[in-house]
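Lab notebook page, bench 4
Experiment: in silico fold of construct C2
Operator: M.H.
Input chain length: 430 residues
Purpose: comparison with the prior construct
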Amino acid sequence: MAVVEIPYNEFRKFVNLPKERLVEVLNELGAPAEEREDGLIVAEITPNRPDWFFITGLARSVLSYIGKKKGLQKYATEKSKYVVIVDKSVEKIRPYSACAVVKGLKLNDELVEQLIQFQDKLITTLGRRVKKFGMGFFDLNLMKFPIYYTAKKPEEIVYKPLNYPKVASAKEILEKHPKGIENGYLLDGCDKYPVYLDVDGKVLVLIPIVNSEELGKIGATTSDLFIEVTGNDFETISGVLKVVCCALQDLGGKIYSVEMKYPDKKVVVPDLSGRFVELDGEGVNKVLGTELTKSQVKDFLLRMGYDFDGKRVEAPPYRLDIIHPVDIIEDIAIAHGYDKFKPSLPNFFSPGKEISTYGQIDGSMRGFGFREIKTFFLVNRKEAKKFGFAGLEEVLNPASEECTALRPILVISLLEVFRNNKTKGIPRRY
């Protein structure tokens, strides 16, 4: 879950609902929410709905659900001459990038905070804390095209990063900047680091570490943005770019396409067209156990932001979670209301039976009087080192001190069991 904080006074500019009703609707949609005394609405958002990480995404769904703006909203890009050149040198580091330009935004301090929160939640969840992708917002009016995505030696990358007191080299940034200390390990073993440069050689960002202070700092006076999403999988980063662009178009921005020139191809992004999924009305009722009519199904789909012609559902570009008809059926269930489903018992009886997973060897060992021990494949790192094992595969975020490294041999766990049970009276055979 990602916890998203939305200022109510800003939210009501998009959806004019009382706080109590807004919290109620968010809970019905599947975004558990509550009102705080400081005027914030705090909602828990599952990573399968990244469009809800931003204020306009939540507002869009709320408006559709309550019937004020039902159906599929269309999104589009304007053609442009913006070009980003992707160099072959990044191929084995972070090979893919997708960009867009947004113009005509009217921001304020609260919306800028919302954008930063949006970026952070996307990177933390879908981006696996920058491992899968990173992204950045830049002031379009401070840079010159074409933009270059390339790799340079650490000493060749020199700029003033965000929230740092001075100009520094990439090596210093990785060693001393908080973001470098946190994510610098992603560049371990690289003799060159990926970087975005404008045509004048100005650094936009050291990827995936930190933006430049000059070009990568946005504020309430920023109206035009350049957006980059860079990572290891093109489908993922292009999907994230769609989510961001749809959110900013709902904020009043105008989206412009960018031509990505790879060494072997050209790709124009973002593609904000919808996607079509076949949907059978009888299949809906079979899955949900209902008797919904086609008109009811269509109404529910419109309330959840889709379009439906009776056979095919058109899903908006920001719905990255739609990969199967059952994902759409889940939204129909939400619109129908989970409280309206009547609990029932299965119409069949199954007595159940024991599942045997033991073979002849297990039976023989038990017959000889041996007892089976089942232990974790993780062990205490310090205990393992007592057996002479160094350089173990360690857990980055262990749940306890007893599970900090991958077990190299079984005997460590066996001796741990003996130690913990030596006074329990359990028979042991050596």
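Observations: The domain at 83-269 is CATH 3.50.40.10 (Phenylalanyl-tRNA Synthetase; Chain B, domain 3). The longest helix spans residues 234-250.
Next step: discuss at group meeting.
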